[in-house]
Write a structure and sequence with these properties.
The protein is an all-alpha fold. The protein folds into two domains: 5-102, DnaJ domain (Helix Hairpins, Orthogonal Bundle), CATH 1.10.287; 106-162. The chain is 77% helix and 0% strand. The chain has seven helices and no strands. Helix 2 packs antiparallel against helix 3, helix 4 (58-78) crosses helix 5 and helix 6 packs antiparallel against helix 7 (143-162). The two termini are 51 Å apart. The mean pLDDT is 78.
Length: 166
């Protein structure tokens, strides 16, 4: 079972960065090997330092929280391999996050915008062709033009929102 870093630093699991830093400084002043006369001060300080590094880094803390909650909730259910399963869960989550970051690339946005803009232009041209060839008689003939213009307006507005001028 993992050590409880929240108990080591004496902070609640909802502690923010400032509370963690404050608790670490207090414990570091007390247990630093250069200051403390305790023979185990070096080991205690290393444990405090490890807890501080894990809780201060957002990714490490997220993994630690997932791992410990998985350990406590599922120890009886999954047996001794619960830590490996928690690590697998965390790695799968990181892989999903990296995938979503990769498809949100600005170049991808630009090409997707161009493709949809071309589709909107084709819808306008086909609508105009219907109007020219069949006339204004039927209301369905103007539908293509209306859809194309609406699509272009939404694309331009969305692109300006997502990519404001600097």
């Amino acid at each position: 079972m993992s050590p409880d870093y929240y108990k080591i630093l004496n902070v609640p699991p909802t502690a923010n960065e400032m509370e963690i830093k404050k608790a670490y400084r207090e414990l570091a002043k007390k247990y630093h090997p250069d200051v403390s006369k305790d023979k185990d001060a070096k080991v205690i300080f290393q444990i405090i330092n490890q807890a501080y590094q894990v809780l201060l880094d957002k990714d490490k803390r997220k993994f630690y929280d997932a791992k410990t909650s998985f350990e406590y909730a599922n120890k009886k259910k999954y047996g001794p391999n619960y830590a490996k399963r928690a690590e697998y869960f965390y790695k799968a989550q990181k892989a999903r996050e990296n995938y979503y970051r990769s498809i949100n690339h600005p170049l991808f946005d630009k090409y997707a915008f161009i493709v949809w803009f071309v589709i909107a232009g084709v819808a306008i041209l086909l609508g105009l062709y219907d109007i020219i060839s069949e006339g204004w008689d039927e209301p369905g003939n103007i539908r293509g033009v209306f859809i194309g213009i609406t699509m272009m307006a939404l694309l331009i507005a969305g692109y300006r929102i997502l990519h404001p001028k600097k």
